[in-house]
Amino acid sequence: MKLFSSPASPFVRKVRVLILEAGLSDQVEEVVTSTTVLESAPDLVAVNPLARLPSLVRDDGPAIYDSRVITRYLDHIGKAGLYPEARLWDVLTLEATADGFIDSAVSIAYENRLRPEEIRFAPWVDGQWNKIARSVKVVNDRWMSHLKGPLDMGQIALACGLGYLDFRHDARNWRSGCPALADWYAEFAERPAMKATAPG
């Protein structure tokens, strides 16, 4: 299989961490791809009409895309158990929360990097950050017992999202008011799979 990827993408990182945690490294070849909303990579367009990362080219079927689709697929073939049936709806909700605030964080990064300064819309950026701050605070206040449980995809998605906030938006300090989550992340970030996939 081939994974179209970028080392800076938090959505790609979710997949890369799962690959390492599930022991699937020998089954997936990474194809590092440079693409933006303004200039889509032709090789990526050929497998994914949305031209978004990550995209996974399978040996036995068409390419699949969206990080949640790919992680479910790889978890299934690797029998990794990162979507446990007993906690499935909690895992999916936590992953959706992480993906949602990652989407807002990536949108802010694109606004700052691709849009000329004179037409950037600060209230829109602030609105995106408010979504991030609310999400992080809710996880800190309501999800810590889940985060202390066995490894699952919700935890991986959350950690990759928090890592991206450090990478692109460190000055905004997501840790403020979230000490329990900050402590959890500091420990989780030491996992070998997280260290091996750190952006930078």
From TrEMBL:
Keyword Transferase listed: yes
Keywords in alphabetical order: Transferase
Keyword Transferase: yes
Gene3D superfamilies: 1.20.1050.10, Glutaredoxin
GO molecular function: transferase activity
Residue intervals of the GST N-terminal domain: 1-82
Full protein name: Glutathione S-transferase
Organism the protein comes from: Pseudooceanicola pacificus
Lineage: Bacteria, Pseudomonadati, Pseudomonadota, Alphaproteobacteria, Rhodobacterales
